[in-house]
Design goal:
- It is a single chain.
- The protein has about 260 residues and is mainly beta.
- About 5% of the residues lie in helices and about 50% in strands.
- A hairpin with a 4-residue loop joins strand 6 and strand 7.
Length: about 260
C-alpha cells in the first residue's frame, strides 16, 4: 500500500512538470495611458454678420485607439483678435470685418476653423467725393449721402446726423431736404460749426439716397474737414442699426 502512494505522488509530480507546473499567476499587460492623438472642430467655418455676434465651436478629441476623450484639455487661439476673439471654451465673438483662423490644440493634436466677419455697412458720407476746393466768398454745396449698396437685406427709416466743420474757414449758408421722408434741423450752433438734422421715413428704404444738401461759403484761406457723425439710425421696425453705420468726411480747401 505504501509503494502505491509513493508511486502516485511521483506520477502527479511528473504530470505537473510536464504541464509547466508553475502555479504562480501570469502577469497581465498594462493598459496604455490614453493620449490625445487627433482633434476635430465643428463646424470648420463660421460666418458672423454683426458686431458682437457669437458662435460656439466644439472640439472632439480622440486617443490612439480612436476613443473619445471627453475630459481632454483643449486650448483655443485666434490668428487675429482684431477680427474675432475666442474664449477658453471655444466661443467665437465678432469684433470687426475680416477673416481669421481659430486653432484648437490638445496635446500634440490640433485642428482649425475659419471665421469670416462680414458686417453689412450703411455708409453715411459728406459729399460725392472726398475733397473739394473753393475760393473765399464762393459757395459749395455738399450732399449728405446714405449709401445702402453694401447693406443687403437692411433698410433705414430714421437717421440723426451731426455735421461739424471749422467755422473760421467755411461758413454755413443753408440746408435743403433730401429724398428720405421728413427733415427736422437744428441750426442753433451753425455759427460755431455744428449742424443737427433728423430724418424719418416710416416705411424705410434699401436704396441709396441724399439725406440733405448743405451749402457753405468760403470764409478764409485754409483746409477744414466737414465731418458727419450718425447719432441714431433705425430700420422700419424701430430697431437700431447704428452698429452697421460707417462714416466718411469731406475735406474742403479754401484759397484766397
Amino acid at each position: 500500500m505504501k509503494r502505491t502512494v509513493v508511486l502516485g505522488s511521483v506520477l502527479f509530480s511528473l504530470l505537473l512538470w510536464s504541464c509547466g507546473g508553475d502555479s504562480s499567476p501570469t502577469a497581465s499587460t498594462p493598459t496604455p495611458t490614453p493620449v490625445a492623438t487627433s482633434i476635430t472642430l465643428s463646424p470648420t467655418s463660421v460666418s458672423l454678420a454683426s458686431l458682437g455676434a457669437t458662435f460656439p465651436l466644439s472640439a472632439t478629441v480622440t486617443d490612439q485607439n480612436g476613443a473619445t476623450m471627453a475630459s481632454a484639455w483643449v486650448t483655443w487661439a485666434t490668428s487675429d483678435a482684431s477680427v474675432a476673439t475666442v474664449s477658453s471654451t471655444g466661443l467665437v465673438t465678432a469684433v470687426a470685418n475680416g477673416t481669421e483662423t481659430i486653432t484648437a490644440t490638445s496635446g500634440s493634436a490640433r485642428d482649425t476653423a475659419s471665421v469670416t466677419v462680414a458686417i453689412p455697412a450703411i455708409a453715411v458720407m459728406v459729399g460725392d467725393s472726398t475733397a473739394s476746393s473753393i475760393t473765399v466768398g464762393n459757395q459749395l454745396t455738399l450732399p449728405v449721402v446714405v449709401d445702402m449698396s453694401q447693406a443687403p437685406g437692411l433698410n433705414i427709416a430714421s437717421l440723426q446726423v451731426k455735421v461739424t466743420w471749422n467755422a473760421s474757414i467755411v461758413s454755413y449758408v443753408s440746408a435743403t431736404p433730401g429724398t428720405l421722408g421728413s427733415l427736422t434741423t437744428n441750426e442753433t450752433d451753425v455759427a460755431t460749426g455744428t449742424f443737427l438734422a433728423n430724418l424719418f421715413s416710416g416705411t424705410g428704404t434699401e436704396e441709396s439716397f441724399r439725406a440733405l444738401v448743405l451749402t457753405f461759403s468760403g470764409a478764409s484761406g485754409g483746409t477744414t474737414a466737414v465731418e458727419v457723425e450718425v447719432t441714431t439710425a433705425g430700420n422700419e421696425l424701430g430697431q437700431s442699426v447704428l452698429d452697421k453705420v460707417t462714416t466718411r468726411k469731406h475735406d474742403v480747401t479754401v484759397s484766397n
